[in-house]
Design brief:
This protein is of the alpha+beta class. The protein has helices at 7-21, 59-72, and strands spanning 34-39, 42-47. 39% of the residues lie in helices and 16% in strands.
């Protein structure tokens, strides 16, 4: 019996929502708009401008990744 992880499904859902809700014509906002999405005991940081995502980590790690990404794109 094979066990499936929900991670690919969640990544695809977040990408689809991003494309639907936050499309840019040619250039990105400065600094980038990064959101930390809480999913139970894990979180993921997702950039609404370039599509960066941190992967699933603790809330604190994702918030740090989001802050770092904002600084790098300012």
């Amino acid at each position: 019996m094979t066990t499936m992880t929900a991670e690919p499904i969640v990544r695809a859902m977040l990408a689809a929502v991003h494309r639907r809700d936050h499309a840019h014509a040619t250039s990105c906002c400065q600094p980038h708009s990064v959101e930390v999405v809480h999913l139970g005991s894990s979180s993921i940081a997702v950039c609404h401008d370039c599509g960066f995502e941190s992967g699933f980590h603790t809330i604190r790690d994702c918030e740090r990744a989001a802050a770092d990404h904002r600084l790098l794109t300012a």
